């Protein structure tokens, strides 16, 4: 099993790192946030960010390490039944790690506004306008039943941008084949302490902290 996603290093460089390298691997670790917990206020408050990062994301990382260790043992024993039974834990926790690692860098206290350059031209080409794109991604995110994510992804085969929703912690690329550019977490733990059950208010606010430089960088990378 190989999952992959973007992981920021401490230097801020974005690297593609494999998840599940079972021969000789480092344990997955919780990435540092590139800003303080309170930096996204008033749009996302410090209490949410602290719990979301240090508790929720940390749990995905810890459980992923445990699941991979068990999977390694099952491989060594040739225990196919155990390998199959571990797939849901690998998918859920591996997806949670991938998704949140992208999410933190998709946000910035200096974010908001509109993208520029190639990304903006692609958005206008594929959605008609930035306003239409924003409306579509918001609607997809509002419409997620229960927990999940709204995404802007890149369809490499068709050479165009698409919006999509994924349930729970299913990773976009592993689920749909789309390369993730911008993810919006619509699990209740991402907004409930501040916005209660009014998901649309959270989605309206989050556009003020979208890090378009990061999204544009991802777009440039996946087009190479």
Automatic annotation (TrEMBL):
One GO molecular function term? Answer: manganese ion binding
The top EC class, named as a word, is: oxidoreductase
> Sorted alphabetically, which PROSITE patterns does this protein's record hold?
SOD_MN
Give the Manganese/iron superoxide dismutase C-terminal domain ranges: 115-218
What Enzyme Commission number does this protein have?
A: 1.15.1.1
Q: What keywords are assigned to this protein?
A: Manganese, Metal-binding, Mitochondrion, Nitration, Oxidoreductase
Positions of the Manganese/iron superoxide dismutase N-terminal domain: 27-108
Q: Quote the record's binding site residues for Mn(2+).
A: 52, 100, 185, 189
**Compartments in which it is found:** Mitochondrion matrix
Q: State the GO CC annotations.
A: mitochondrial matrix
Q: Which cofactor does it need?
A: Mn(2+)
Reaction(s) this enzyme catalyzes, per UniProt: 2 superoxide + 2 H(+) = H2O2 + O2
| InterPro entries to which the protein is assigned, alphabetical | Fe/Mn_Superoxide_Dismutase, Mn/Fe_SOD, Mn/Fe_SOD_BS, Mn/Fe_SOD_C, Mn/Fe_SOD_N, Mn/Fe_SOD_N_sf, SOD_C_sf
Please give the superkingdom of this protein's source.
Answer: Eukaryota
State the function annotated in the UniProt record.
Answer: Destroys radicals which are normally produced within the cells and which are toxic to biological systems.
State the family named in the UniProt similarity comment for this chain. Answer: Belongs to the iron/manganese superoxide dismutase family.
Under PANTHER family, the record lists: SUPEROXIDE DISMUTASE 2, SUPEROXIDE DISMUTASE [MN], MITOCHONDRIAL
How it assembles, according to the record, is: Homotetramer.
- Record's protein name: Superoxide dismutase
